From TrEMBL:
Its main location: endoplasmic reticulum. Keywords: Endoplasmic reticulum, ER-Golgi transport, Membrane, Protein transport, Repeat, Transmembrane, Transmembrane helix, Transport, WD repeat. PROSITE patterns: WD_REPEATS_2, WD_REPEATS_REGION. It is found in: Endoplasmic reticulum membrane. This is Prolactin regulatory element-binding protein. WD repeats lie at residues 191-213, 223-264. The chain crosses the membrane at residues 418-438. The keyword Transcription regulation does not apply. Signal peptide: none annotated. Residues 153-162 have a biased composition (Polar residues). Residues 113-162 are annotated as: Disordered. It is a single-pass membrane protein.
Length: 443
């Protein structure tokens, strides 16, 4: 039986434009992107970065910085943090724009807080943090002392004498390259950066998958992958393959060295229903030595109410379907946790979010109607990516976004290692053994 929504989960932040992309920038900072398009609607286009923390009761978010992109909506993006440099790439119509994200660590002095506008959440009205405020730096459960630094300024420190520190961000546009060359309406639909940060894949309406060296943005391969526009791409963990799915109904594996086809996923759907792949994501095996896993979501074409949608687990080396689970409505978003343990999906019509165990596809969390409209993106909180993970009471947590302008979070409580039925059986066995022992001893 999957867990239901926890009372401390739900709305994390709200922006004033529709959201289409979500990426973790550091282990504690999330970037969301979207916009209202080029029409004169008054709806902005761009990015917002939020700092996440846990105050002992709930996840909280503070707005860090906002960057607007003028008349160009951001429909897809990817981030790369090497520890020393941070990069952001975003699809803007037919081009891919590279941004350099400069990060500066600053000590937070009580005297200087008003000078750092990004430290204050703009939406503090009726915020639970007014009653139980989170300490600066996202460490709300640490005791606070006040020390003098070398300049004589008052400084907030914890019980160990460590100063509170914050990250300042500055987003600067850099190179831009054209990635789609469709004659009718060239648009980049997707961009992904490989695990090592050395490769970038782009794809769009012209059906090509293009590989680029990163962050140099120099093209390496043109792969004539599909006859229709590409919906999604992803790199395998070892970066030997890139997988692509398209509205032509195919899901194909390509060599990142030669650009040649190395495999294709084929699913013999039951009956006369036609299905299309919607999203695809690789996931590492938990032991890190077993072959990688490939997850996909597949939707029926036409009236989805008559046919089910599917979350699928594949063996990519064999092109074989290992497991699948069905959904009563079409699926719109897919994400895999960086430790390979969980996979999450979002739905098209009800705006619901589910979390599954990766190897078995057992559903362990279901959040009905997390959003008022379809889920456009999902992203797991990382476990140690570019810094320590956020300490919380959850085994896993996933962020979700939608065109309803909301950023939400959904967490899975730590599960018991012993099933309830087994624990009850052990208690009964212990009581029966105690009765037999007492009877034997004549007690």
């Amino acid at each position: 039986m999957p867990s239901i929504r926890r009372k401390e989960d739900g709305l994390l932040a709200r922006v004033n434009f529709p959201l289409y992309a979500v990426q973790m920038l550091t282990s504690r900072h999330v970037l969301v992107a979207g916009g209202g398009g080029s029409a004169n609607t008054g709806v902005a286009n761009g990015f917002e970065i939020f700092e996440l923390s846990h105050d002992g009761e709930q996840f909280v978010a503070e707005e860090v910085i906002r960057h607007e992109t003028g008349p160009v909506v951001v429909m897809n993006c990817a981030t790369r943090n090497s520890g020393r440099k941070c990069f952001l790439v975003a699809g803007q119509e037919s081009h891919c724009q590279l941004y350099t994200v400069n990060i500066k660590v600053v000590n937070v002095h009580e005297n200087n807080i008003p000078g750092h506008q990004h430290l204050t959440n703009r939406n503090t009205k009726n915020d639970s943090r007014k009653k139980n405020p989170t300490k600066l730096g996202g460490e709300g459960n640490r005791a606070v002392k006040k020390n003098k630094d070398a300049d004589g300024k008052t400084q907030n420190v914890d019980s160990n004498g460590n100063s509170y520190q914050k990250l300042q961000f500055e987003i600067k546009p850099n190179d831009s390259v054209q990635t789609d060359f469709s004659e009718k309406e060239p648009v980049q639909r997707v961009v992904r950066i490989s695990h090592s940060g050395k490769l970038m894949a782009t794809a769009g309406t012209d059906g090509y998958v293009r590989l680029w060296s990163f962050p140099a943005m120099v093209k390496k391969l043109d792969i004539q992958a599909h006859s229709k526009e590409v919906d999604d791409v992803d790199f395998s963990p070892d970066e030997k393959w890139v997988v692509s799915i398209s509205k032509d109904g195919t899901c194909v594996l390509w060599s990142t060295e030669s650009g040649k086809k190395v495999g294709e996923l084929k699913w013999p759907s039951a009956g006369e229903a036609k299905y299309l792949f919607k999203r695809c994501r690789f996931g590492v095996a938990e032991d890190r030595e077993s072959p990688s896993r490939l997850f996909s979501i597949m939707n029926p074409v036409g009236r989805s109410g008559r046919h089910k949608a599917y979350l699928q687990l594949w063996d990519p080396s064999e092109g074989m379907l290992k497991r699948d689970v069905s959904y009563a409505e079409s699926l719109s978003a897919l994400a895999v946790s960086d430790n390979g343990r969980f996979v999450a999906v979002g739905t098209m019509f009800s705006g619901s979010v589910s979390m599954h165990v990766a190897f078995s596809l057992q559903r362990v969390l279901y959040v009905k109607e997390a959003h008022s409209m379809f889920v456009t993106g999902l992203e797991f909180l990382p476990q140690g990516l570019n810094g320590p993970p956020i300490t919380s009471t959850a085994e896993a947590a996933v962020l979700s976004i939608s065109v309803d302008n909301r950023v939400c979070i959904h967490s899975l409580p730590y599960r018991s290692s012993v099933p309830l039925w087994f624990a009850i059986l052990l208690i009964i066995a212990a009581m029966f053994s105690a009765f037999l022992f007492c009877n034997y001893m004549g007690l």
